[in-house]
Structure prediction request, 367 residues.
Amino acid sequence: MKVSHKVDRFWFTYFLIRLFYLFFAVLVYAKLTPLGDTDRYMSAGFFFSWKIFYQSTWLLDFLGGILGGLLGGSNVVSNLPFTVLSFCIIKWAIEELNFKIPAGNNMLLLILISLPNFCVWTSVCSKEVFGLLFSAILGVLIIRFFNRDYKIKKKDWLALYLCLMFKPQYLPAILECLLLIYLFNEYCKNLRSKALLFIFIIAVNVGGLYLVRDTVNMYADIMFLNFDNPEASSNRNENIWMKENDFYKEAPLGMLVAFFGPTINEMFSKPTHFLAGLESIIMLVLFIRMAKQPLIRLVFDGKYNATIIPAYWILFTGICFMHYPFGIFNSGSAIRYRTNFIFLFIILLMYIHFHYQKKHLIRYSKQ
Prediction:
């Protein structure tokens, strides 16, 4: 009896790409620049502590210690489970939302999920793997909310828990986005009510930031001191928060710099910075391409989706604002920490790419 199984060419190709990045990360990239705390996680040894359930570093030490202890420290084999996990997470999210066009051109999708730094940091034992996990699940949840499916499943609770453990600073923007979508869909039936609610949420956020300005100024100084030491390997040593409330004044440009990574001058100072900057340029071009249709409608026709655009504004600016202090003083940190939420951005931009084109039906499971 002959048994055959058809292999999906797209996913087979992508798995080979992920394997390449695993070998590259362990055998090449780790020789050029420190690979985060991967080596330390893998050499933590066998232990157990209740802290693994609420402290991200302890969880990575626990998992890395087991794999490293069994498989000989940090190497290709011991990091392979994290590569496979990342691959499965991405495959699940793309198929859940039907973003891959059957027998069609999926090159845009393949490029986006194959970005070098994104693949490197999610192919080894790192916190970014768990950032990818909660980003994928919460991205699907947000799109389900757009389609009035408000059921919070077990995996959604898991994603919220992981977000709270690994990147709690992102959680307010994500929860606000979900709340705004729900209120817009169910209670705001006209443009005026949606505009008032959106203005109210913005005002609450701005007011909250104003009330905690003294605390923010204090932590801004602490943040700079953390990067202004030899162990941090920071490539930007100038403190841009010299005066009171400079953290807020520098935020618009700082958010962009922290998201992009290396500046133009920094790109030509080091090969790794050049490649990281080139990746950011390619990524931004692809993001603009995906958002092209809503931008054209907004600029030339004055039309826009009164739910999607405000929700995206809350989420994107909120996350980038919280990313800003972690990426402004070190382009390497900016690129690495961006990995925690970039797949969430990819999912949501792919959604509007298909939503406005109306050439592809987006489906998702309600099981």
Remarks:
- Confidence is low (pLDDT under 50) at residues 359-367.
- The chain has 18 helices and no strands.
- The CA atoms of residues 72 and 78 lie 7 Å apart.
